[in-house]
Amino acid sequence: MKHSALAYLTITAAAFVAGSASAQMAVTIGATDAAACYNHARSAYESSTEPCDNALKDALTTRRDRMKTHVNRGIIHNRNGDLNAAIEDFNAALDIDGDQPEAFINRGNSWFLAGRFDDALEDYERALDAGLNKAWMAWYNIGLAYDQKKQPEKALEAYQKALDLNPDFTKAKNKVQGRAESTRQN
Q1: Domain range for residue 51?
Q2: Taking each helix axis from N to C terminus, what angle separates 101-113 and 117-129, rounded to the nearest 10 degrees?
Q3: How far is Cα 71 from Cα 42, in angstroms, rounded to an integer?
Q4: 60 lies in a domain?
Q5: Whole-model pTM?
Q6: How many domains are contained in the chain?
Q7: C-alpha angle with apex 5: 3 to 93, nearest 5 degrees?
Q8: Which residues are CB-contacts of 21 (< 8 A; sequence separation ≥ 6)?
Q9: Helix 135-148 to helix 101-113 angle, to the nearest 10 degrees?
Q10: Any idea what the CATH number is for the domain that residue 52 is in?
Q11: Per-residue pLDDT tens for 85-130?
């Protein structure tokens, strides 16, 4: 179940590396072990947190790279289905920078995977408030959460906002078109 839900989550990078699924995660870039951690987080197949763990143990890792490394390790934990560890990492990143939009959107994804859709919605909104560069990612995730809450009108509105912000976002386009086709058939 968690793996099929995770298939809905697209991994993206601060430099914006798009993945192949639906909701959005934001990966951040650091240096050395932190850079290896980033590469593990953006890979759809990597499950090891070792480079992240090493970066966090390194006394030379800057505060900003620690924050980014927590976000990236949290993404790996999400992928591995260890949602509690993921949330701990996103919280640690937010302890360093309380306005870190990537930490909010990814913690929202943890809540989403845990079935805590109201908490997910709150964090997606906080990612928007914190200035998420790719706001369409959060709007799409908001649509997914509203779909899970059986609120199709709100979901459609969120998907449309995602599409308005990024007209080339195929997954949002498919959601909007699918709703239009379903309405015509009824």
Answers
A1: 2-138
A2: 170
A3: 11
A4: yes
A5: 0.83
A6: 1
A7: 90
A8: 6, 7, 8, 9, 10, 11
A9: 20
A10: 1.25.40.10
A11: 999 999 999 999 999 999 999 999 999 999 999 999 999 999 999 9
